[in-house]
Design goal:
The complex is a heterodimer of chains A (614) and B (291). With 614 residues, chain A is α/β, with parallel strands linked by helices. Chain A is 55% helix and 12% strand. Chain A folds into three domains: 285 residues, no CATH class; 163 residues, 3-Layer(aba) Sandwich (Rossmann fold), CATH 3.40.50.300; 76 residues, no CATH class. Chain A is built from 24 helices and 14 strands. In chain A, helix 18 crosses helix 19. Chain B has 291 residues and is an all-alpha fold. Chain B has a two-stranded antiparallel ribbon. The chains are: A alpha/beta (614), B mainly alpha (291).
């Protein structure tokens, strides 16, 4: 995202933060307003990682904002603990721990359920703060007398007790916050966050433990919220109980949406607009409480018309101007000229596959399914399927519609679990494992209907898939740069070359032609370096010309890999596969070489007879 | 020691609150089930019902006019909201739908505050239902007893509409698979509008019939919205019977806990929700795949 000039965003932020005290007061901002903006901006950084980047809309951030603030304020006032910063950090840690526990519950569900559960949980915090814990939190009075921070430098002590000195304190921490947030978003974890937002199903299928990463995003957001809550108390000299209200969560959501989610700076811009308008309406126009009505209307209009908020709108405008008003460049013709054409890349393409094939050198059989059955109530999708694939084989699976091919594939990749039977992969029983674990073992599939990360570029798509194999299902390398991962770039560029998408690497998926998307679909599976690759109807929906080209591509990919291909295109399967399994009504009808299948009377009766009449 | 008369009267309160929550949640859940939109302005609909009824009451002095005005006004607001705004959001992500309905909720609340101020308003119960009624060993406010009956009747009407009419059949089919209903040649947008209207009306009706019990203020809807969410999570999204069951459970939990310490009523509600999430992630009567 900010790849080209890595530190330009940080530098610009620093300059802007230094310039603010000289510029904003002339525009009618009071120092208190500016300080509040920074607190809300910092609060929003974490929330943007959760909502804008990971796609989890929480309406319960007040719980962590309030908790962090109350813990810090309690330490500083009631306990009279003398160190402001230490108290802030303790508050942050407590908020993060609470965030972890809440996340365990809330993340059991996604989408609107998640939103509803976060609302409910935050409301519980509000009530706990007001009643059972009111002896500690001051109930509806809050905690007054929170001291301002001081910095002892040995020769002198800096006191942050005026508005502008407080500004330097807050600006410093906002800067630290943004540097950390940018760092996280440029790390592998950040890339996976975006993948979860775009397509959680595929993010899990390429081998990422998405629950773990969602929980990570949730804890990060809670930590930012807790720290910002602590700063609020320190800034005002008073920790208000209304930090815990639903209004706080709502205001954060609205500010982020106004500014633009998924931009990191959106919440800051949103807070600026919000607090400025609030001041303006109340003190200049004397609208009293009506300002909230005006802001509500502005917010609804923004959500309806400006989908990506103010920052998103500006970015889009800048992109538009940079292109000189031209619309997006037209999609290249399919299978654009690739250096050397098919065949020349066989050497390099064998490299990714070699990785996993070394692990179980002893056995010749890579996959063995025994007695596999799947029943949905009375409907039998698969019944007692026995299926064995040898290493290096290219197996075709055919069968009329409703023969249970897709169910069979889903069982092999552990997307669904069989009613009976076992699946052995590389000599290991994988029955009942999750799709993520199976992918980590080296078995993955490309989907019949494209499952891509739509708003990301082709390169980012492939990178996300390759990361799973390079770093395992879950790893918290939050501060590591993507470019520091050994062999990642090589893997990505090899995969891109293999599926002929090198020239389209920096194009967003949504701008690709259909055939290109199909190739990327296969590329995602390939980037995980599978030792066994399943392709579910790779030719579905393709034009005759695209079919020919894709068959050539599949042949090339098959070199040095073990693959199972399902397709309706009989000619393609006969051309590609060494052995073909025919399914009918959920069971194996027959298995053999293409010649045997062609000659088999039962197959002709069940299937080919109808297919060969034009 | 527990005071048994007090306990039973709290159970009754729980029943009344539960029935009310059941009605409001049914509205929320059929809208979500059919349109796929979680209406965060549903609490505001409850509040609007109360205010529209209060306005009608101050002009006519009639309780019945108040109930009619409250229900109809909110139904119209619901229909307009669906036609003008929500319709543009069917193809947009869930998050955008949440944002826009959340924003609309704030606009409704603040508009009411603008016109009527923040002070709470009272709609008295109709003359015949004022006072208290002795039932066996205890006295119970007459209107609350009546309210239980009124809400029960409303729930039955909703049930009949949903389960015994052609329109209801189409709506239930839409909850199962709205694109299939569309494919069958039924104008699914008309159904969406209707469902949004009925769902909103359920909240508006609840808002006005509850006004004699709890006085109305611009932000009464907020707490109701949160409780409704818990009800829906417990009962299962998109399930009418789930909303009724969840409503009754939530009502009893809130009332009985309040007897010991009102501060813990939300905590207990939350504990119940967590238990359901752990043991039956799709809600007591919900089915997998609806989210």
């Amino acid at each position: 995202m900010f790849k080209q000039r890595p530190f330009i965003v940080e530098a610009l932020t620093a300059i802007a933060l230094i310039a603010v005290p000289f510029v904003l007061p002339h525009l009618g901002f009071s120092p208190t307003t500016i300080n509040r903006i920074l607190v809300w901006g910092l609060f929003g950084l974490g929330f943007d990682i959760l909502f804008g980047f990971t796609g989890l809309l929480s309406f319960g951030q007040s719980a962590f904002f309030g908790t962090g603030g109350m813990v810090a304020a309690y330490l500083l006032t009631v306990v009279e603990f003398p160190y402001v910063l230490t108290s802030l950090f303790i508050g942050t840690v407590v908020a993060a721990v609470i965030g972890y526990l809440v996340g365990l519950i809330a993340l059991r569900r996604t989408g609107i359920y998640f939103a509803m559960i976060t609302v409910a949980i935050a409301e519980v915090f509000y009530f706990i703060e007001f009643n059972p814990l009111s002896d500690f939190t001051g109930g509806e009075n809050g905690l007054p007398g929170v001291p301002t921070p001081t910095l002892y430098l040995g020769f002198t002590t800096v006191k942050f007790n005026t508005d502008w000195s407080m500004y330097t304190f807050l600006a410093f921490w906002y800067f630290v916050g943004i540097v950390l947030a940018l760092r996280i978003m440029r790390s592998p974890v950040g890339a996976i966050f975006s993948a979860i937002r775009e397509n959680p199903l595929r993010a899990a299928a390429v081998g990422h433990n998405i629950h773990g990463y969602k929980l990570t995003a949730f804890v990060i957001a809670a930590a930012y919220a807790g720290f910002a809550g602590g700063l609020l108390g320190v800034m005002q000299g008073f920790m208000p109980p209304d930090a815990f209200t639903f209004d706080t969560s709502g205001q954060l959501v609205m500010q982020t949406a106004i500014g633009g989610a998924g931009t990191l700076f959106g919440p800051l811009v949103g807070a600026t607009v919000w607090l400025y308008l609030s001041d303006f309406f109340q003190t200049t126009l004397h609208l009293g409480a009506t300002w909230k009505l005006v802001l509500g209307v502005v917010f609804v209009l923004l959500v309806v018309f400006l989908r990506r908020g103010l920052v998103g709108g500006l970015v889009d405008l800048a992109d538009f101007l940079a292109r000189g008003g031209r619309s997006k460049e037209p999609a290249e013709p399919d299978m654009g000229p690739t250096p050397g054409g098919p065949g020349s890349e066989v050497g390099s393409s064998a490299a990714p596959a070699a990785l996993n094939s070394a692990t179980a050198a002893g056995s010749d059989v890579i996959l063995e399914a025994r007695g596999l059955s799947k029943r949905y109530g009375g409907v039998v999708a698969n019944d007692n399927v026995n299926f064995t694939v040898r290493r290096g084989e290219l197996r075709g699976v055919i069968g009329p519609n409703g023969a249970g091919k897709s169910t069979f594939f889903k069982m092999l990749t552990c997307e669904i679990h069989p009613t009976a039977g076992t699946i052995m992969f590389e000599g290991q029983d994988i029955t009942g494992l999750e799709v993520t674990e199976v992918c980590q073992l080296g078995l993955t599939k490309s989907y019949q209907v494209n499952q891509l990360f739509n708003r990301l570029t082709v390169r980012q798509n492939i990178t996300i898939a390759a990361l799973a194999q390079k770093r395992g299902a879950f790893r918290l390398d939050l501060l590591r740069s993507l470019s520091k991962i050994d062999g990642l770039e090589k893997r990505v560029s090899e995969t891109l070359a293999l599926v002929h998408l090198t020239s389209r690497a920096d194009t967003p998926v949504s701008d690709l032609a259909y055939g290109e998307k199909r190739r990327l679909e296969i590329g995602l599976a390939l980037a995980t370096a599978p030792s066994l690759l399943l392709l579910d109807e790779p030719l579905a929906g393709m034009s005759p010309r695209e079919r020919v080209e894709t068959v050539a591509l599949l042949k090339q990919i098959a070199n040095g890999r073990t693959m199972i291909v399902i397709d309706h295109d009989m000619d393609a399967i006969f051309e590609l596969a060494e052995t073909i399994t025919v399914l009918r009504e959920g069971s194996v009808l027959v298995e053999g070489t293409p010649e045997e299948i062609r000659a088999n009377a039962a197959v002709q009766e069940a299937y080919l007879g109808g297919m060969h009449t034009p | 020691m527990i005071n048994w008369a007090n306990f039973i009267s709290q159970c009754f309160n729980g029943l009344v609150l539960g029935a009310l929550l059941a009605l409001i949640s049914s509205g929320l859940t059929i809208i979500y089930g059919t349109l796929g939109v979680l209406n965060l302005a549903h609490g505001a609909m409850f509040m609007l019902g109360g205010y529209a009824g209060w306005v009608a009451y101050t002009y006519t002095g009639s309780y019945l006019a108040a109930v009619a005005a409250g229900s109809l006004f909110v139904m119209i607001v619901g229909v307009l909201m669906e036609r003008v705004i929500i319709r543009q959001f069917y193809s947009r992500p869930h998050e955008d739908q949440l944002l826009v309905t959340f924003g609309l909720g704030i606009v409704f609340v603040e508009a009411v505050r603008f016109f009527f101020g923040s002070l709470s308003k009272v709609v008295p119960p109709p003359a015949g239902l004022a006072g208290i009624t002795p039932i066996g060993f205890m006295f119970y406010p007459t209107y609350r007893l009546a309210l239980l009956g009124i809400v029960a009747v409303a729930l039955i009407v909703l049930y009949v509409v949903l389960y015994r009419t052609r329109i209801g059949m189409i709506v239930r089919a839409g909850i199962e698979d709205s694109s299939m209903v569309d494919a069958l040649g039924i104008d699914v947008y008309k159904i969406f509008m209707l469902v949004f209207g009925i769902g909103a009306m359920a909240a508006g009706f609840a808002g006005i019939v509850n006004a004699p019990v709890v006085s109305i203020a611009p932000d009464v809807g907020e707490a109701i919205l949160v409780q409704t969410f818990v009800v829906v999570v417990i009962g299962g999204v998109g399930s009418f019977p789930g909303a009724v069951l969840g409503g009754l459970i939530a009502g009893e939990i809130i009332s009985i806990t309040s007897m010991f310490n009102p501060g813990y009523s939300y905590v207990m509600l939350f504990v119940a929700m967590t238990l359901v999430l752990v043991l039956r992630p799709y809600g007591l009567l919900g089915t997998a795949g609806r989210e």
